[in-house]
């Protein structure tokens, strides 16, 4: 809000010096001014929630129409369904998107990668600043309840396959454990956990170390704030998405600075294709959402400080979380070799926790040469990881 006038001025000058009708736009001076103004405009812009924008997908060489539908509405998130115009029946796959600052659209590449082979659903979490305080609170226990409710919603006829990407690995494993303990017949057929913080004591990353060395009161006093008056969720206590984004970017600051320097040079050189690729990625990456304070603080305490799940003491609303009770949900753990968010071995720990599963229903896959993002997005995900997931779900129908 404070820098919105600067943003407006930068946008105006960018349009003026970049306008094709302006002769100055064809000079090195004009391109430099336009590039500088675009950089300033992008740094001061508020990035709104992106759209998935998946309208078709290629299956066996043919274009198939895709319709994005809201299957279920909840106060803090919707269940989306990517319905395809197909005659045949496909296995259902429920993707649980992370609630960690970015919108579910960050998994667009994940959805595109699995869409040709599965009937895909995904959780679309809402920005906490857009949820009126009258809707109540949303914590880690609510998250677990939502996961179970979504599974029940789409498993009325067929048991579903479920996939958790990053942060939701813990609540998804907890939800499936509760269903197993209660002998729920709709428990998922398979569970795929990708780059999740199951046991952050193993190869702790900078993110893990920060969460563990600071007391919970430090997080509550320093990163929690109230939603201002120009949002529907006014006065709700939240962990702002821009703080989460700042933390991620400072971990690889040189990389992001170099990327923006390259964008500046592409704009001056008139390399529109490279500049557009940069815009597309960062428009998504810089679009962030706020998280309810109670969810954030409970996650910090339960997952990163007390390590409740791997220690076997985690509870949800008085219910014991017992992964060892899982006997009919096959488990696939996937990690990226260069993951600097969830260290190597943290997701693999889930295989040991699910001691009730026979080894034939467990699989571990380490993807060489990829970091955290590459474990669920990009070319290597589509070409090398998706086939692993497909083979696993086929084997455990």
Structure write-up:
This protein has 397 residues and is of the alpha/beta class. It folds into two domains: 1-46; 56-214 and 294-395, 3-Layer(aba) Sandwich (Rossmann fold). It has 14 helices and 14 strands. The strands form three sheets. It has a nine-stranded mixed beta sheet, with helices on both faces. Strands 8-9-10 form a three-stranded antiparallel beta sheet. It has a two-stranded antiparallel ribbon with strand order 11-12. Helix 2 runs antiparallel to helix 9 and helix 4 packs across helix 5. It is globular. The N and C termini lie far apart (52 Å).
Order of helices and strands: HHEEEEHEHEHEHHEEHHHEHHEEEHEH
In round numbers, the mean pLDDT is: 88
For the record, the CATH architecture of the largest domain stands as 3-Layer(aba) Sandwich
Classify the fold: give the CATH topology of the largest domain.
Answer: Rossmann fold
Number of domains: 2
Based on secondary structure, the structural category is alpha/beta
Largest sheet: 9 strands, mixed
CATH superfamily of the largest domain: Alpha/Beta hydrolase fold, catalytic domain
Number of helices: 14
Helix content range of the residues, please?
40-55%
Q: How would you sum up the global shape? A: globular
Number of strands: 14
Any key phrases for this structure?
397 residues, alpha/beta, Rossmann fold, 2 domains, 9-stranded mixed β-sheet, 3-stranded antiparallel β-sheet, 41% helix
Brief overview:
The protein is α/β, with parallel strands linked by helices and 397 residues long. It contains 14 helices and 14 strands. Helix 2 (28-43) runs antiparallel to helix 9, helix 4 (140-154) packs across helix 5 (169-181) and helix 9 runs antiparallel to helix 10 (272-285).
């Amino acid at each position: 809000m404070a820098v919105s006038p600067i943003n407006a001025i930068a946008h105006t000058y960018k349009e003026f010096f970049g306008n094709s009708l302006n002769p100055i736009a064809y000079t090195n001076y004009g391109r430099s001014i336009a590039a500088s103004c675009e950089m300033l405009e992008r740094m001061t812009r508020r990035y709104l929630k992106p759209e998935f924008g998946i309208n078709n997908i290629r299956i066996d060489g043919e274009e198939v129409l895709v319709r994005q539908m809201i299957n279920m509405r909840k106060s803090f998130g919707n269940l989306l369904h990517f319905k395809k115009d197909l005659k045949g029946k496909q296995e259902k796959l429920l993707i649980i998107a992370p609630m960690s600052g970015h919108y579910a659209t960050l998994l667009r590449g994940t959805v595109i990668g699995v869409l040709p082979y599965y009937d895909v659903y995904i959780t679309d979490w809402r920005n906490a600043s857009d949820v009126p305080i009258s809707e109540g609170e949303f914590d880690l226990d609510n998250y677990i309840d939502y996961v179970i409710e979504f599974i029940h919603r789409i498993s009325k006829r067929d048991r579903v396959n479920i996939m958790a990407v990053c942060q939701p690995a813990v609540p998804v494993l907890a939800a499936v454990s509760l269903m197993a303990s209660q002998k729920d017949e709709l428990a998922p057929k398979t569970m795929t956990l990708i780059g999740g913080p199951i046991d952050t004591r193993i190869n702790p990353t900078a993110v893990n170390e920060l969460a563990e060395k600071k007391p919970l009161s430090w997080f509550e006093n320093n990163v929690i704030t109230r939603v201002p008056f120009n949002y529907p969720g006014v006065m709700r206590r939240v962990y702002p998405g821009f703080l989460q984004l700042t933390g991620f970017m400072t971990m690889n600051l040189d990389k992001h600075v170099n990327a923006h320097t390259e964008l500046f040079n592409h704009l001056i050189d008139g390399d529109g294709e490279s500049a557009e690729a940069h815009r597309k990625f960062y428009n998504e990456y810089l679009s962030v959402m706020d998280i309810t304070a109670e969810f954030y603080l409970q996650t910090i305490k339960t997952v990163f400080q007390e390590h409740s799940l791997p220690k076997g003491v985690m509870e949800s609303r008085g219910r014991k979380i017992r992964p060892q009770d899982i006997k009919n949900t096959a488990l696939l753990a996937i990690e990226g070799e260069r993951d600097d968010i969830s260290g190597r071995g943290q997701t693999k720990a889930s295989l040991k926790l699910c001691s009730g599963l026979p080894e034939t229903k467990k699989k571990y896959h380490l993807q060489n040469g990829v970091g955290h993002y590459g474990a669920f997005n990009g070319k290597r995900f589509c070409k090398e990881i998706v086939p692993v997931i497909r083979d696993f779900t086929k084997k455990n129908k």
